[in-house]
């Protein structure tokens, strides 16, 4: 395979056999003399338009529920696979009644909104744009439409950020735009807000702006918990590269932005001092107390063995800690420093695989990370096929369990197979990413002459600390002049 010039963009139809085959639908692979980026339809704009188009198709897929499935008949929304939390929580979490999240108590057992503060603000803003008169069903439909419009903006932001993170690989953004699971799950919940902030944070890190990247990661963590995990891979990567100042600025930005969002809601003064507001803490207590639920490996084990697994929290935490330790060792032992996107994908995938619950929309967390970590259409589509099967499986299972004695849908054994497909598909993609780390010559990004396009200050930087024999770089590795490398073996000697 011929190498590319450092300034030449990577064209997937010339590098990826699946992309080349798929391009036949629009006239075949791009020619050698094709002019790219000289007209209005630049790669980034094409990626954004495709993302909006696919998002719109996902909205059309929800049409049976919009026309009554959310309101009439408990199982029709499952049979058509168009369920969404958004219309149900409009009334269920007090937005229809004008209640203020985290401050006003809700009727029933939930008491307070169980979402992080920035997501709660997103939900509240959408409720402000929803008319407060008329039938509740009409208002719920409008609330879903308003949220869908706001989430469409998030989807476009995600696709654009992915397209621009790897400067020479803008077309990799199509992996996000065309991901079927992305379109199917985009309007189930509000996860796209956190995913968009995370993608923007990774883009800024790739541009060597660690403080701004940290600010966005902190905001993303204020919308969903998982983005804070990205600080772990950055810690080990910066340790290996000796870029402690950049890491400190990222952490500072994340902490400050998270506090700015949370402190006004988090603390309450009752005359005797400041205390944690019960409404703010609901998200964290709910996550801790929540039993094993749909899609998790723990539910699969519980259903197969009959064991309720009351200690699932402990098991999940231990596996997560062990997995993070393994990723740290992998980072420090690898023959070349792993790319940031690779480790970001692996740590979030580890969290998903060990978590007590796997809601269908959680796949959104991984889609942009997978596109950056392993931009190969075959592997990406294998994983996506497994996720689509899980998407269909959970709704058919809920239709089966919610249909009384009719049992029309997928029985427990079929749903267990769907869970297994989701787990195996995610593990497969993790395996090929780990293989790329251990065998850098197999990494399609580095094969084209790049080092770590999403790494920012880490890109093409020499190592200063490695373990074992990792300092003996193979012939295919980039060679750097300057800072010396220090291995654990040398320190012991």
TrEMBL record:
Predominant localisation class: membrane
The protein, known as: Glycosyltransferase 87 family protein
Localization (cell): Cell membrane
Superkingdom, natural source: Bacteria
Cross-referenced InterPro entries: GT87, UCP010361
Transmembrane segments: 39-60, 142-163, 175-205, 211-238, 250-269, 313-334, 380-398, 418-438
This protein's record includes keyword Transmembrane helix: yes
Membrane topology: Multi-pass membrane protein
């Amino acid at each position: 395979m011929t190498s590319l010039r450092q300034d030449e963009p990577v064209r997937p139809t010339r590098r990826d056999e699946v992309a080349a085959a798929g391009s036949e639908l629009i006239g075949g692979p791009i020619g050698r003399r094709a002019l790219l980026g000289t007209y209005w339809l630049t790669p980034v704009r094409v990626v954004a338009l495709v993302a909006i188009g696919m998002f719109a198709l996902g909205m059309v897929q929800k049409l049976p529920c919009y026309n009554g499935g959310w309101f009439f008949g408990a199982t029709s929304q499952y049979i058509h696979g168009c369920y969404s939390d958004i219309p149900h929580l409009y009334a269920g979490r007090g937005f229809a009644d004008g209640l203020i999240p985290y401050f006003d108590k809700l009727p029933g057992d939930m008491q307070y909104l169980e979402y992080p503060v920035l997501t709660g603000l997103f939900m509240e803003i959408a409720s402000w744009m929803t008319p407060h008169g008329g039938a509740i069903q009409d208002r719920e439909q409008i609330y879903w439409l308003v949220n869908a419009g706001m989430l469409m903006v998030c989807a476009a932001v995600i696709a654009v950020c992915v397209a621009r993170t790897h400067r020479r690989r803008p077309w990799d953004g199509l992996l996000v735009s065309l991901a079927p699971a992305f379109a199917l799950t985009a309007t189930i919940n509000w996860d796209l807000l956190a995913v968009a902030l995370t993608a923007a944070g990774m883009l800024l890190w790739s541009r060597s702006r660690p403080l701004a990247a940290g600010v966005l990661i902190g905001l993303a963590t204020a919308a969903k918990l998982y983005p804070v995990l990205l600080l772990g891979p950055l810690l080990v990567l910066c340790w290996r590269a000796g870029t402690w100042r950049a890491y400190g600025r990222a952490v500072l930005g994340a902490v400050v932005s998270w506090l700015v969002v949370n402190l006004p809601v988090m603390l309450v003064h009752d005359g005797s001092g400041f205390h944690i507001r019960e409404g703010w803490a609901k998200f964290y207590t709910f996550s801790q107390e929540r039993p094993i639920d749909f899609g998790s490996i723990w539910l699969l084990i519980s259903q197969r063995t009959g064991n309720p697994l009351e200690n699932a929290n402990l098991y999940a935490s231990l596996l997560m800690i062990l997995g993070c330790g393994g990723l740290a060792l992998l980072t420090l032992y690898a023959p070349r420093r792993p790319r940031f996107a690779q480790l970001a994908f692996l740590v979030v995938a580890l969290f998903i695989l060990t978590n007590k619950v796997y809601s269908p929309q959680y796949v959104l967390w991984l889609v942009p990370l997978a596109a950056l970590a392993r931009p190969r259409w075959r592997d990406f589509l294998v994983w996506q096929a497994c996720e689509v099967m899980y998407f269909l499986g959970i709704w058919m299972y809920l239709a089966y369990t919610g249909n009384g004695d009719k049992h029309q849908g997928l029985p427990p054994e079929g749903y267990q197979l769907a869970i297994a497909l989701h787990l195996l598909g995610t593990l497969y993609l993790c395996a090929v990413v780990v293989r790329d780390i251990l065998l850098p010559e197999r990494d399609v990004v580095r094969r084209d002459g790049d080092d770590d396009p999403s790494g920012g200050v880490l890109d093409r930087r020499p190592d200063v600390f490695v373990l074992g024999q990792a300092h003996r770089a193979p012939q295919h590795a980039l060679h750097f002049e300057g800072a010396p490398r220090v291995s654990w073996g040398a320190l012991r000697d």
